[in-house]
Amino acid sequence: xxxxxxxCVEAVEWCMQTxxxxxxxxxxxxxxxxxxxxxxxPESITSPxxxxxxxxxxxxxxxxxxxxxxxxxxxxxxxxxxxxxLRDDDLVGREGDLYVTA
Length: 102
Prior knowledge:
Elements: H1 8-22, H2 25-28, H3 48-60, H4 65-72, H5 76-88, E1 92-95, E2 98-101
Antiparallel strand pairs: 1-2
Helix pairs in contact: 1-3, 3-5
């Protein structure tokens, strides 16, 4: 199994491209739809991984642990740490099995 190495900036760009690709034209007319262009990452998030997880959740409308791990190619133990910090700051919450932005 090969690993992919990329910088946080590259990861955020990839996340935004993925969200754009998944963004349908039907939702473009919806003023409540979230696109990478209208997501503001809170300044209180200083960790690059925290920003990446927050952006992923904001652009995907929430995600399970497995979706986050696979989508961001992040180890589960790392994800737990990042999610824990975001939850401590009341920036991320849970809705059933999904993590969502608060």
